[in-house]
């Protein structure tokens, strides 16, 4: 048995019990797809410092609001897990309609998210340092050291390229296939370029708009999955 893409919807179940098992799974996938980017908006809003803050401002903000930072780190953790799952779900949905573009978009977007989560978090380093009694100037120096590492800069660069190109490719699949309304596909295409533009310019509203656009696009995919499944069906292949 192999999983193969198909333009058809998930085949009808042979019994009412089977249908009952499928529908909750679709609903969960649809919910995860919508929640992934939405949680990142919450994480942005809950941060104790502004997006355009320098290293001193970041350390000062965390030092003044350590409880808020702890809560935000929990949000980032959950958001990262849910967004990774959401990208995989949307990727399966896209691959059912365009296997090559869908796979490329999934690997780029998902790989970028996984890669950036594997780099040292200056928020975690700062918060833990403060709790162990390190002075703010020391933590600022430590942040600058982390940011100067070529391994970190390489990971950040690959993350930017990966999740921007990945979201664009997934959006193109949605647009070409007509699987969701064109405006939802365009929202997916424009989402991560807008987010990166916000990060680069320090305009937090633009970074949030990027994830808001992704929430719109992914939510429409989630609704389609909840109603009809991903379109990816299981078929038989020759041994």
Tell me what the structure shows.
- The chain contains nine helices and two strands; from the N terminus they run E-H-H-H-H-H-H-H-H-H-E.
- It is mainly α.
- It has a two-stranded antiparallel ribbon.
- The chain starts with a strand and ends with a strand.
The SSE string, one letter per element, is EHHHHHHHHHE
Which value, in Å, is the CA radius of gyration?
20 Å
What is the helix tally?
9
Coarse morphology: elongated
Strand content: under 5%
What portion of residues is helical? over 70%
Question: Roughly how many Å apart are the termini?
Answer: 9 Å
The parts where pLDDT drops under 50 for at least 5 residues are 6-22, 235-239
List strands and helices in order, with pairings:
Blueprint: E1 2-5, H1 16-46, H2 55-64, H3 66-95, H4 99-117, H5 122-131, H6 136-148, H7 150-177, H8 182-201, H9 204-228, E2 232-235
Antiparallel strand pairs: 1-2
Helix pairs in contact: 1-3, 1-9, 2-5, 2-6, 3-4, 4-7, 5-6, 7-8, 8-9
What is this structure, in a nutshell?
Helix 8 (182-201) packs antiparallel against helix 9 (204-228).
Which descriptors apply to this entry?
disordered C terminus, mainly alpha, elongated, two-stranded antiparallel ribbon, 9 helices, 239 residues
């Amino acid at each position: 048995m192999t999983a193969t893409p198909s333009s058809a919807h998930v085949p009808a179940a042979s019994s009412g019990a089977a249908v009952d098992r499928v529908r909750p799974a679709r609903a969960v996938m649809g919910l995860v797809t919508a929640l992934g980017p939405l949680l990142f908006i919450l994480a942005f809003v809950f941060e104790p410092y502004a997006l355009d803050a320098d290293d001193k401002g970041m350390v000062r903000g965390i030092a003044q609001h350590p409880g808020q930072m702890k809560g935000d780190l929990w949000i980032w953790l959950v958001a990262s897990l849910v967004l990774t799952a959401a990208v995989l779900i949307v990727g399966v949905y896209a691959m059912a309609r365009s296997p090559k573009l869908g796979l490329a978009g999934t690997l780029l977007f998902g790989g970028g998210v996984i890669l950036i989560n594997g780099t040292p978090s200056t928020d975690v380093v700062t918060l833990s340092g403060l709790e162990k009694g390190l002075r703010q100037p020391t933590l600022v120096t430590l942040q600058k050291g982390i940011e100067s590492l070529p391994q970190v800069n390489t990971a950040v660069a690959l993350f930017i390229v990966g999740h921007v190109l990945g979201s664009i490719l997934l959006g193109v699949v949605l647009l070409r296939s007509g699987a969701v309304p064109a405006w939802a596909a365009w929202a997916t295409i424009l989402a991560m370029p807008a987010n990166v533009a916000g990060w680069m310019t320090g305009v937090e509203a633009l970074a949030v708009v990027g994830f808001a656009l992704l929430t719109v696009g992914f939510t429409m995919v989630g609704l389609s999955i909840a109603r009809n499944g991903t379109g990816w069906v299981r078929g038989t292949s020759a041994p």
